[in-house]
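S.,

Sequence below, as promised.
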Amino acid sequence: MSKRNKVLLIGWDAADWQIIGPLLAKGQMPALQRLINNGVYGNMATMNPPYSPMLWSTVATGKTPDKHGVLGFIELMPDMKGVRPVTVNSRKSRAIWNILHNQGLKSNLVGWWPSFPAEPINGVVVTDKFQKVKQDPKAKNPIVKGTVHPESLVNDIQDLRMFSHEITEAHILPFIPKAGQIDQEKHKGLQAFARIMAENSSIHAAATNLLRTTDWDFMAIYYDLIDHICHAFMKYHPPKLNSVPQDLYDIYNECVIGAYRFQDMMLDRTLSLVDKDTTVIVMSDHGFESGHKRIVKMPKYPAAPSLDHRQFGMFVASGPNIKKNEKVFGLGLIDVAPTILHMYNLPIGKDMDGKVALDIFKDVKEPNYIDTWENVSGDFGEQDKSKEADQLSDQETLEQLIDLGYIERPDEKMETAVLKTKCDLKHNLARVYSGKKDYDRAKEILLDLISEDYPVFEQEEIESLKKKKDSIDVKVGDSKIDVIPFYMDLLSISIATMDFDKAEIYLKELKTRDKYFEINTYFSEAKILINKGKVHEALKLLNKAKNNKPNSEVWYQIGNIYRQLNEFENAKEAYESSLKYESDKAKTHQALAETYIRLGDYEEAIDHAFVAIELVKYFPKAHYTLGEALEKFGDLENAKKAYETAAMLKPKTHFRAETAIQNINKKQNSIDLTDKSTFQYIENQIVVVSGLPRSGTSLMMQMLDKGGLEVLTDNNRKADKSNPKGYYEYDPVMSIARDNTWIEKAQGKSVKVVAPLLKYLDPKYRYKVIFMNRDLGEVVKSQQVMLGKDPEVLPTRLLETYEKHLNQVSIWKDKEPHVELMYVNHKDVINSPNDITEKISKFLGLKNLDTEKMCACVDTKLYRNRS
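The prediction came back faster than expected:
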């Protein structure tokens, strides 16, 4: 390295562009603005569940929590007989600083959560226990063993800690100008503010001290100022929520803005202590709701305050090899560690879940890789976990987590507290797997959790609880473990995996159990109704939810239903309404892009697909939609790139994207091809004969059979008066919505599939669809005769339904790249069989069809029920 690489990583827990943006516009965060002007900025996607110790451990390791092992705010004692705030001992993967230690580099770490007890790395570690002090001004606050490494530094930095009782009006009034009006007997806001301010001032003092007095290659500083201020005071942030008292709003409404501005002031001082060759990264692990979705009264749900966490945090980087004043896209927490290792020219572990964010660099070098850093031998400056001491039990930190609402107060019976912690950690692991779409593992854990035989509340325990609380939500015989969250996640997984029968069972179970918190099941119920074909009932349910409490998700789900009904103008309006509530929802932009394609507005579709990709780079569906929009727009070259990206990003084979690429290659190599007909034979192609009931599909199947194309049929439905030459049906077709694995048998053959079921064809295969058209009046008359009804009485609703089916087929064939479709008019088959058989032969690319035998199948005497 010609110059010494130095990287400073600063964590601002919960920092959000929605607050930062307006402050930058007003010039009120000048330090961050300088970094942006000289660097890159963008969103930082969070993970599920958005619990800070889990997320910051992901930042440090480049791995998801199932791999790095930190699964919550608390952990079990090694002897399994107690619980304590999470420590570094839960982490089972090596962090950035462990790897740098092994490579002979020096790291400083201040306040990282979790980092206690300090790891003996080459450098200095001031752990997350340093700033946690007793609130009683008379109490002694010695720095316990394991708080600082090396221990010889304790005397030098112990006086850098600030205490709540040292916070004066000079500190308070810039944030809370009307602090003098607070009745501190009734409202504890000032106490919470003083603690948060003191703790973050302690972190800042330690960090700036180390920046001035030590030599280092890598340094990481973590602040929880914004997160804790937001949890305490975001409910009072403008605009005023109806349920917030006016007097408290008037007192606290400037507090959140004050926290951001103070954080920027600390950043300004920090930047003054680093040189121009240092790469500085400022980032958050998640955002924080600041609009209509803020929760004033938290439900009784595990770690309920995290419900206020938004899916996107922020990211800014500036340094010698970082691009200037440029927005970057698609960053995730898992990408930070690989990117920092790359800055030191070190290999990235292939077992890391993240990728190097190459887009941020001016001069891009290809990353190097190693199978894993976990098996590399040598000194990594790791904690000797066999030498744990009792001091790891930390009541002050535990109390703060309780005050913030992240955990419940541990049960007085330690065995119950241990059981609850075990369940919470298992549940969090299930949620991690679910977030990774590893639904089988998630479901296995959740089923285990609901099958346990848990202890129940006894009468004397209920009496004891009544003495401590004004009201309690439990009664004698209730389980001490609330299984409702487990059932909620099982419901979500069942819907995600299209197992709607199980989803209905879990929904009923939830409704029968006592609800200790308000459960929102609108979306689940709507999806179950849709699966049952009760689309309009689902729409009615969601409209009720929208009128009760409008939000982005309910509008999004309404848009999905309208899109399913092919009511694209209504879908567009619903998605646009959703974006008014949350403009940075990638899935909504993708759905709106797809809707614009159906409406023929390809430019708008391209714009929204791009926005979706900017928000979430690893979004195969958005890349595919972009490809479709570009292809329709005529930009085949870029459409192909978009399809290729979609195929690359999807974990399993993206058959639609791969087929679309093949189609574009053919278009680029020939000027004679039409949109949905290549007139070429495709190996293993499946010929599908479709149409409305009584539209001539059986006749076409007979023609193909006699013409020499093998037919997939089980002959279970016998010929009758309505169809004297046979139906040529295959029973598994009727259950294609649940199981389409049988389609493999249809390769190289023909099969009959009625129009409403075409959408369930597996995109893995290529299809040539012969769609039988017939005058709708004739179709309905023929069906009336078949059912023994008066053919002269035409049911209006049936006609309308058939018209909808025809419209859906038209949209479907334009949307699906693996489908070629030819419309064949029933009347033309009867009147001009020679012409039609020639066209069919060309469409299928089959030169050896016996067209004479095909024509011989046509019996004009059977052409009844003419309109």
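The two ends are 84 Å apart (CA to CA).

Coffee later?
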